Structures are given as structure tokens and as C-alpha cells.
Amino acid sequence: METLAMVTIAVYLLTFSVASAQWENRYAKLNDFGHHVYLEQHELPILSHGQTDPAPAPDGKRLAFAARGWLWNLNLETGTAVRLTSGPEVDSRPRWSPDGKHLAFVRDNGLNTAVIIKELATGKETKIDTEAIELDPEFSTDGEWLYYTSGVSGSLNLWKYNLSSEMTEQLTNLSQVERNSRSLAKDGSLLYLHGSGAYRALRIKDLKSGSDTIALARTLDYHFTADTHPKQDLIVYSAPIDNAYHLWTMDLNNCQTPPYQRRSLRLNASL
Does 98 share its domain with 229? Predict the structure, then answer.
């Protein structure tokens, strides 16, 4: 009986500790996430030994990417990559300024994330950081603003930062997740991801008129991401079909196009 009682107590303590640990969070708590495992799994950057987050430079001659926790700059003509960052934190999700002189990215120290703007010629870094999570920078087409995501309101919303005055302003206020903003060829508009539970949508925010519309909505696509064409109203996004992820292109001037008319970019298995 004594042995059985000890085993029962041990199982209870183990169960209690596991249940308690499930609700602990390393990063700043967000009000609309009941369980932070979903935030950390689906929204935060990942550490990868291989290359992730490719970002072509405006001149088309260089490619920034993340690997092994740092950022790299690949010369597309020579095939040589130079490391741009070297600190103990994890740097990822780089984006170029329109003039190619700055690189903005996410820096994760394991407890918090910040947005860094790095001047490539001098190495000078400017940090956008609060006690909350900051993610996914994107330069405006005129280079005067940096769009990014912040959890400072208690939810992941879109913000903008003026590179000259350092003024910040909140742009959106939907529930849970608003991130992965991308400047559209039409100046004054942003494409971004909105996620709430299993719901995922690509939305277009017109910063001049204030209108906010859905371009494409899906469910259960937790790694639903997109990027924009620099000169045309076209996007490319990643989404699954037939039990595998594919890249799709979509014309934003015809957002009502049925899925079977969108183009699927299937990769050659030999690549």
C-alpha cells in the first residue's frame, strides 16, 4: 500500500508539473493566445542549419538569406556568400531597403524578438524593440518607413516606423496574428497575413484610403506565407494541395479567380 501511495503521489506531481509547464511562456504573453506553443511553432522564426528566408536585393545581383542563426549575403554572379551578422542571437527574415543600402531583419535571443535595421556600409544597427514581440520588417517603396509586427498592444498587429523621425504608429487591430507584411507595387498598399485560430487570410491594407480587404482566405494552412512582385500586382504564396506544399501565383487584379485558374509552380523532383 505504501509503495502504491508513493507511485500515486509521483504520478500526480509529474502530471501537475507537465500541466503547469504547458501554460508557461518564454516570450512576452499575448492576450489572445491561450497557449503560446501555437505562437512559437507557427509565427516565430526558426533556427535552421540550411538556408531559409531568401530575399533578393533590388539590383538583382545579391541574395540575403538566413542560415545557422546568422544572415548572409550571396553574390549571385560569383556564388560566394559573405556573413553579415555574427552575434549569439538568431537573426532571420531579412528584407532590403529600396536603395539596397540597408537590411532589416528579426533578432531572437530566446526570450524576446526585436527588429534590426543594419546599414551595410558601416555595420551600424538600429533596434526597434519593446518588451513585447517584434517581427517581420518590410520597407515602404519610397524607403521612408519600415512596416513591422509588434505585440505591444497585447496582440500581434502591424505598425510602421519612420526612419527619419523614429515615430511609430499602429496600422491594424485585428485579433491574434497580423504579420508578414509586404509592400505592393502600388504605392501605399500592403499585403499581409491575418491568422486567428485555424483561419488564415492574405489581406490588402490601403494605407491612403484606410480600406482593408481579403485577397485570399484559407483554413488550416498554418505556414501560409506570401511575397509580392516589385513592379506588378502579382503575388506568390505557399499552400498545400494533394498532401504537399506548392508555390502558387495570383493576380491581385482578379482576386475572385477560382483556385483551378491560379498557377501552381511545381518543383522538379530532380532539383
Answer: no
pLDDT at 167 > cutoff 50? yes
> What is the sign, positive or negative, of the torsion defined by CA atoms of 127, 131, 136, 137?
negative
Q: Which domain holds residue 112?
A: 2-183
DSSP 228-254: E-SSSSEEEEEEEETTEEEEEEEEGGG
Last residue of a domain, one of 134, 161, 183: 183
Beta strands per DSSP E along 1-42: none
- Per-residue pLDDT at 9 exceeds 80: no
Indicate if 157 and 206 belong to the same structural domain.
no
Same domain, 95 and 201: no
- Name the pTM for this structure: 0.86
Contact 170, 164 (CB under 8 A): no
pLDDT tens track for 18-70: 444 455 788 999 998 888 888 988 999 989 999 999 999 999 999 999 999 99
Residue whose entry in the numeric block shows the C-alpha cell 499575448: 30
Closest alpha carbon to 150 in 115, 200, 199, 123: 115
Q: Rounded to the nearest 5°, which phi and psi values hold at 69?
A: 95, 0
Of 149, 183, 217, which one is at a domain's C-terminal end?
Answer: 183
Partner residues linked to 216 by β-bridges: 202
Let me know whether 193 and 164 are in one domain. Answer: no
Output phi, psi for 170, to 5 deg: -80, 135
